[in-house]
């Protein structure tokens, strides 16, 4: 987003000489300036100053990125997916957030994956689109060429396309690192209606720049106990002829990826914690757009947080029945009690899939039971897509097969 930051050692004027410190009376060598920018020099960008030529590659091999095949939701039914059944506890210590992701749902605009990780990830960059990774549980250190973050439960980690980074779980916590990864084929940003024409978050937005955490840095190889000349591998997800048009490559570099001595600009990774989202409430039930936090091309991300609910004397706090005529609605239930879904089997770690073309809403009896309730203690992350989502191998593996009939018994 267009919020200028500067970090580390940069020259006073862009695109001018920036040299290493002089030694023995000799002029220092030039640092290598890299422009990382979006939309062909027409949108946000940052300038990074490297110790090494960023184009250098001394080896390349294929990376098999796992099963990205999808199956249409046909016949069309709502579904309940149990994400906490995807990973056996014995497998967690050897799973990482990058290579261990299992595809739950996807289409040509966005893919939703899940990982429960105990191992550090390789260095990685997504060359297809931005990523928004929601930390459901656990803690981790995220190291990037822009700097590092400590992330924990409730954090959204926004990582721009082509940002080299890695995830290192903190093993001292009681919970393993549970990561809900939303991968776009586009960029992910705050909703345009929250922003001024110059990119500042406006007064009616449910969060502001003070709530965003930028990277700490700069972060260099020696800061993480590595050698600057250490040969390294970077796993790259990029466009190709694989399932979903995506394939993987591993590049070998003759140096450590953390070689940026300074950078400035408006394009960089950042973190936003869901607890800093200020819910918008009203006398009667508010529609889902008030819960929106980010958007990408053909999809939006919303969060439902603990909040005071409708206070009209005749209000019905749970949602009315609604038909998603233009979108699929994917709700990931993270914490709390879900008044509208009681009796459906949905709980923490569940995903509900409400596809376009199907009217959905509260479970039988939930509307009446909610009358008089003043506060909802719930936390959920919702993704609405404007093209149909299909089931990935992870979604197919944990479909309960019964949710479609939770509003009424199926025919014998």
UniProtKB/TrEMBL annotation:
Cofactor requirement: Fe cation
Origin species: Pedococcus ginsenosidimutans
Pfam families per UniProt: HgmA_C
Start and end residues of each stretch annotated as Disordered: 1-25
UniProt biased composition (Basic residues): 13-23
Domain Homogentisate 1,2-dioxygenase C-terminal: 299-375
PANTHER family: HOMOGENTISATE 1,2-DIOXYGENASE
Family statement: Belongs to the homogentisate dioxygenase family.
Domain of life: Bacteria
CDD domains recorded: cupin_RmlC-like (cd02208)
Protein's name according to its UniProt entry: Homogentisate 1,2-dioxygenase
InterPro entries according to UniProt: HgmA_C, Homogentis_dOase, RmlC-like_jellyroll, RmlC_Cupin_sf
């Amino acid at each position: 987003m267009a919020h200028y930051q500067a970090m580390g050692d940069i020259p006073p004027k862009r695109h001018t000489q920036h040299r290493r410190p002089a030694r023995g009376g000799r002029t220092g060598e030039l640092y290598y300036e890299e422009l990382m920018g979006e939309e062909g020099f027409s949108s946000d960008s940052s300038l990074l100053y490297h110790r090494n030529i960023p184009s250098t590659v001394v080896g390349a091999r294929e990376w098999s990125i796992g099963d990205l095949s999808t199956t249409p939701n046909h016949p069309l039914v709502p579904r309940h997916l149990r994400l906490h059944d995807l990973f056996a506890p014995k497998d967690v210590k050897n799973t990482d957030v990058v290579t261990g992701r299992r595809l739950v749902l996807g289409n040509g605009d966005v893919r939703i994956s899940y990982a429960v990780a105990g191992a550090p990830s390789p260095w990685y960059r997504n060359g297809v689109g931005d990523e928004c990774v929601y930390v459901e549980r656990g803690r981790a250190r995220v190291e990037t060429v822009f700097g590092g973050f400590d992330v924990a439960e409730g954090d959204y980690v926004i990582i721009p396309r082509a940002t080299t980074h890695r995830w290192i779980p903190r093993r001292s916590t009681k919970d393993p690192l549970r990561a809900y990864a939303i991968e776009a084929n586009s960029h992910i940003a705050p909703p345009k209606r929250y922003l001024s024409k110059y990119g500042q978050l406006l007064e009616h937005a449910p969060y502001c720049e003070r709530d965003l955490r930028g990277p700490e840095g700069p972060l260099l190889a020696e800061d993480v106990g590595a050698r600057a000349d250490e040969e390294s591998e970077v796993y790259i997800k990029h466009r190709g002829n694989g399932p979903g048009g995506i394939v993987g490559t591993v590049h070998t570099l003759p140096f450590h990826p953390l070689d940026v001595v300074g950078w400035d600009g408006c394009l960089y990774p950042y973190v936003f914690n869901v607890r800093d989202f200020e819910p918008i409430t009203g006398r009667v039930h508010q529609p889902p757009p008030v819960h929106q936090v980010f958007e990408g091309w053909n999809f939006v991300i919303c969060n439902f947080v603990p909040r005071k609910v409708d206070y009209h004397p005749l209000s019905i706090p749970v949602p009315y029945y609604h038909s998603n005529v233009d979108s699929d609605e994917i709700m990931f239930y993270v914490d709390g009690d879900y008044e509208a879904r009681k009796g459906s089997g949905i709980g923490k770690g569940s995903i509900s899939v409400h596809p376009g073309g199907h009217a959905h809403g509260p479970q039988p009896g939930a509307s009446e039971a909610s009358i008089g309730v003043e506060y909802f203690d719930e936390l959920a992350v919702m993704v609405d897509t404007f093209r149909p989502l299909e089931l990935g191998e992870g979604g197919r593996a944990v479909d309960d097969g019964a949710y479609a009939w939770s509003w009424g018994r199926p025919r014998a």
